[in-house]
């Protein structure tokens, strides 16, 4: 039979642990991690992902070519856009340098036809200040050096073309042969002839005619 007394006046209620006390005791029994344990617990990264733990909680930052961090698609877009702008600016600057070099080359050609080889060398050199990877400029200048009797300097220009720009360039091999012939270096002369024949086997008639001019010093 139920008691008609208020629960707080019921002695049986006073003898039993209250539900609140049970909860409090349960909470006290839970071990809280200390600061040292919290610090030593490894942080999950992409490298710690396993079959049981597949949640990626950290990612390494992506770095662009300039050492900048790319944290979002917007950053990547900005970076790629800047690359395109830089490339466009370089192309524009290259075209301007080529335009200037072309003017100096034409002036050099004009001086060569006049027999003013010193001035022609100067003009070709000015052109090369703007465009340093043009075989024709080095070759034209080397021919001027040959006309001036500066054979070793001519060989330097020919060697630069053959070693850095175009190893099969026919005029570079022929002018190199011409310079060595003028220095009475027959071994180097024959070596040049061997390679120019090898690389340009379909133009042997022209090569042979040029060699005859070299041997007869008709240059």
UniProtKB/TrEMBL annotation:
InterPro entries: TPR-like_helical_dom_sf (IPR011990), TPR_rpt (IPR019734), TTC12 (IPR043195)
The organism of origin for this protein: Drosophila virilis
GO CC entries: centrosome; cytoplasm
Single Gene Ontology BP annotation: sperm axoneme assembly
Keywords: TPR repeat
TPR repeats: 101-134
Recorded name of the encoding gene: Dvir\GJ23936
Tagged with keyword Phosphoprotein: no
Name of the protein in question: Uncharacterized protein
Residues forming coiled coils: none
Superkingdom of origin organism: Eukaryota
